[in-house]
Amino acid sequence: MSTKSVRWLTPTEERAWRALRRVLVAVQAGTAHDLAAIGLSEADYEVLSTLSEQPAQTSTLGVQADKMGWSRSRLSRHASRMEARGLLRRAPDPADGRGCLLVLTAPGMAALRDAAPVHVESVRRHLVDRLAPQDLAALERIAGRLAQPPADDDQAGPPPAGTSRP
């Protein structure tokens, strides 16, 4: 891509981008620090909490990876470390001889029960309690929009206020 075709950020766009990056880093660092104090990583908590939401606290590796937005190999490596600590176990997947099921163990559920209040308090301290209700609503709206994959014709962003795309 030549630099002539690059749509450089305006000063306002660059400030917004940098502000978002700083917020993401600060909130994530704060919650990671708080979870580390009780012996869990953010990744551990994410695996435990999403697995606890599944029927019988069991999920295929592929479904779990998709739900978390991780690659299968990343989840498989992390699951191995969690299995060694007794937080989950792997079981053969009867529907797929090459796959496996991840099963939340009793110690894993206990770890999640112990961590959940710490995590919620951390999320409150680093994010929720620092924002007004309308800020939270705006954040949810923005996050929902950003979670959607961009359409090819939306690469340029939304049209300016008062205009529409053909």
Automatic annotation (TrEMBL):
<dbReference type="InterPro" id="IPR000835">
    <property type="entry name" value="HTH_MarR-typ"/>
</dbReference>
<dbReference type="GO" id="GO:0006950">
    <property type="term" value="P:response to stress"/>
</dbReference>
<feature type="domain" description="HTH marR-type">
    <location>
        <begin position="13"/>
        <end position="148"/>
    </location>
</feature>
<dbReference type="GO" id="GO:0003700">
    <property type="term" value="F:DNA-binding transcription factor activity"/>
</dbReference>
<dbReference type="InterPro" id="IPR036390">
    <property type="entry name" value="WH_DNA-bd_sf"/>
</dbReference>
<feature type="compositionally biased region" description="Pro residues">
    <location>
        <begin position="157"/>
        <end position="166"/>
    </location>
</feature>
<dbReference type="InterPro" id="IPR036388">
    <property type="entry name" value="WH-like_DNA-bd_sf"/>
</dbReference>
<dbReference type="Pfam" id="PF12802">
    <property type="entry name" value="MarR_2"/>
</dbReference>
<feature type="region of interest" description="Disordered">
    <location>
        <begin position="142"/>
        <end position="166"/>
    </location>
</feature>
<dbReference type="InterPro" id="IPR039422">
    <property type="entry name" value="MarR/SlyA-like"/>
</dbReference>
<protein>
    <submittedName>
        <fullName>MarR family transcriptional regulator</fullName>
    </submittedName>
</protein>
